[in-house]
UniProtKB/TrEMBL annotation:
Signal sequence region: none
Name of the coding gene: LOC103721723
Lineage: Eukaryota, Viridiplantae, Streptophyta, Embryophyta, Tracheophyta
Domain GFO/IDH/MocA-like oxidoreductase: 138-259
Domain Gfo/Idh/MocA-like oxidoreductase N-terminal as annotated: residue spans: 6-125
GO terms for MF: nucleotide binding
Protein's recorded name: Uncharacterized oxidoreductase At4g09670-like
Pfam families: GFO_IDH_MocA, GFO_IDH_MocA_C3
Originating organism: Phoenix dactylifera (Date palm)
Length: 358
């Protein structure tokens, strides 16, 4: 444990909070000191069930966590409809904000969160874990190798899982008053973020949702797809769904190389992750195969990617505290660009799949 670990308060006892409480415990520079819920008993049970330190304080409200002087930063896994209220409140109390994705229901809401964080000098980061895995850095090295990969031309991403009937009827991600973005916010966030990452966060010229849309009776998106188009000819597509077999794929194709990942958001293993890379491929004689075949690249990880995310967030907070540095603007910018495209896809859907200019 670091000499002065960043002390986290957790707002809410959502299922994902179990994963993050473990990640905070595994991180060498962070610790959980408080958990808040609308029910004091629920907060107490969360602390006991997840093996948090005995001194962890249970609070019967989110306000109590924000008012706790021992809390340096908050992790906010609340429904998306509550993000603006509680992230802004946290920033206004000087708490650094690690916010679950999707960050907000719209870029206007996210802007109010980011403005609050900027005005009080607190660090903001969203909970996209895969960006912090060492595999991601290695993939970026290869994508940036002009001699082996070349300019990107085509990107495709998909994220799906086959939801149970209980999920489709009861989960907050299917409720318009809690998470009205549905699969677009929950799964599409990863797809859109992966596409942006692959092209260096260059925004497309326009976005067109595809007429492959499924809504529940309340109008929440259960499945959707979209295409992105850049002025230089790049194109990207994604598909996200609560209605089909698990996929977490990313494919990136350049003029000279290609990269394929099958387990982007959640690697098959915690201690390592792999991807395939090919450069200079062509058909073998009589089109019977590829030459050369893709290389499998495996990258080890000392900690699970969620713990690496927490560790990086805590490192930035420590730098702000000890060196009086400004918050790192990289993470708010990534979140805002992703949210912009979520908004554009939603707008295209609502406009009967017409293109939306960025």
């Amino acid at each position: 444990m670091a000499e002065h670990p960043i002390r986290f308060g957790i707002l809410g006892c959502a299922n994902i909070a179990r994963k993050l409480s473990r990640a905070i415990s595994l991180s060498p520079n962070a610790t959980v000191v408080a958990v808040g819920s609308r029910s004091l008993d629920k907060a107490q049970r969360f602390i006991a069930d997840n093996g948090l330190p005995p001194a962890t304080r249970a609070h019967g409200s989110y306000e109590a966590v924000l008012d706790d002087p021992a809390v340096d930063a908050v992790y906010v896994p609340l429904p998306t409809s509550l993000h603006e209220r509680w992230a802004v409140a946290a920033a206004e109390r000087g708490k650094h904000v690690l916010l679950e994705k999707p960050t907000a229901l719209s870029v206007a809401e996210l802007d109010r969160i980011l403005e609050a964080c900027a005005s009080t000098g607190v660090q903001f980061m969203d909970g996209t874990m895969w960006l912090h895995h060492p595999r991601t850095a290695r993939m970026k090295e290869l994508l940036s190798d002009a001699g082996r990969f070349g300019p990107p031309k085509v990107v495709h991403s998909s994220f799906s899982f086959l939801a149970s009937s209980e999920f489709l009827n009861k989960d907050i991600r299917t409720k318009p008053d809690l998470d009205s973005l549905g699969a677009l916010g929950d799964l599409g966030w990863y797809c859109i973020g992966a596409i942006l990452w692959a092209v260096g966060y260059e925004l497309p010229a326009f976005v067109t949702a595809l007429p492959a849309l499924h809504l529940n009776q309340a109008g929440v998106i259960l499945s959707c797809a979209s295409s992105f188009h850049w002025d230089d000819g790049k194109v990207a597509t994604f598909h996200c769904s609560f209605l089909s077999q698990v996929t977490m794929d990313l494919s990136v194709h350049g003029t000279m190389g290609s990269l394929q990942v099958e387990d982007l958001a959640i690697p098959y293993q915690e201690d390592s992750a792999s991807f395939e890379f090919n450069s200079g491929a062509h058909f073998a004689e009589l089109h019977i195969g590829w030459s050369p075949k893709p290389d499998k690249v495996t990258v080890a990880a000392d900690l699970p990617q969620e713990a690496l995310m927490v560790s990086e967030f805590a490192r930035l907070v420590q730098m702000i505290r000890s060196s009086h540095r400004r918050p790192d603007p990289k993470w708010p910018d990534i979140s805002r660009r992703t949210q912009l495209l979520v908004d554009a896809v939603k707008q295209s859907i609502e406009n009967n799949f017409k293109p939306v200019n960025l």
